[in-house]
Design brief:
Blueprint lengths: L11 H14 L4 H8 L3 H8 L7 H10 L5 E2 L15 E2 H8 L5
Helix pairs in contact: 2-3, 2-4
Amino acid sequence: MSPIDDMRVRTSKDLGALIRQRRRELGLNQQALAERVGVSRQWIVEVEQGKPRAELALVLRALDVLGLRLTAQHDKSGPDAPMRTPGVDIDAVVRAARKPRP
């Protein structure tokens, strides 16, 4: 099991760290990842540093290239949090939101 198998992502810095760690696990440098995602190396640098305003579609594409899957879970840590709800399949949400290609 990889250290990122159940990593909590709560901030853009957490997401950047996740992307960096997975890129390194795969033996990719920033330029190679940038080419696969279709962005500049500078974009990869900024995302890995936690740039808070990175375009979501590009972030999702980077996660896909890296073989990472996002799931969302309700954090039941609050005092009046309801019972645990099942995770959300973010892949299904993205598929449903995509416009059909002609």
